[in-house]
Amino acid sequence: MKKPLLIVALLVAAILIAGCTSTTSSPHDAETSPTATTPPAPTADALLSEEEDDILPLGEIVMFRDATEENELSLKVASFTDRGSYEPADDPRKFTAPQGWRYLLVHVVVTHRGHRGDGYWTTVYAPPVQQFSLMDNGRTYRPESIPTKYLTNIGELYHGDEWVDRNEKCEGYIVYKVPEAVINSEDATITADIVGLKHHSYGYSYGRECYNFKSYDKNPVWRLV
Hints:
The protein has a domain at 61-210: Sandwich (Immunoglobulin-like), CATH 2.60.40. 19% of the residues lie in helices and 33% in strands. The chain contains four helices and 15 strands. It has helices spanning 2-23, 27-32, 44-53, 180-183; strands spanning 62-66, 71-83, 85-86, 95-96, 101-115, 124-126, 132-136, 139-141, 150-151, 155-156, 162-164, 169-179, 189-192, 211-212, 221-223. The strands form five sheets. It has a five-stranded antiparallel beta sheet with strand order 12-5-2-1-14. Strands 8-7-13-15 form a four-stranded antiparallel beta sheet, with no helix packed on it. It has a two-stranded antiparallel sheet with strand order 3-4. The longest helix has 22 residues, at 2-23.
């Protein structure tokens, strides 16, 4: 009886050893058949961080040229302040913001930096005030329409839409009516929508692009706070 039992035990052991050997991969197999991995997709935070890198601090200057490449100009959002009301210098009326709202006044400066052509076309075009928008918390605010040149106790308004000659500037305040929370918001930004801007007045430049953005191909954005 002992011999049959011994033979059965040896057969079982042989089967177990053969099974373990056939299911074990060698180091060589692991090296030649690597497991394919998919790189992780960019997260929302990473994409937001890249967008944040493109936002300019208040006072940062953007340099570019006109479409002829003969004139260089600069643009900057220099500063801002806020008021509960404003008074046009040539108008007896006083405009007061509704409760919970303020007037945000943003100082914009366009400067003619120099002419590099033959002296024939020496002016640059200052973008219209409508090209500047304020954004905060997903909401867009447009400039107030104020048909005057100066505000009492504040200064000159920026209207743009004019030609600036060498060594001259077009500057002034753009007025936005915003909720009080926007004044100190870290997300409040000013965007100059000028890439692809075309001349709208009739004449030599009608329908042509105003600027050449070889080194700056996106609308500049400034953070207010």
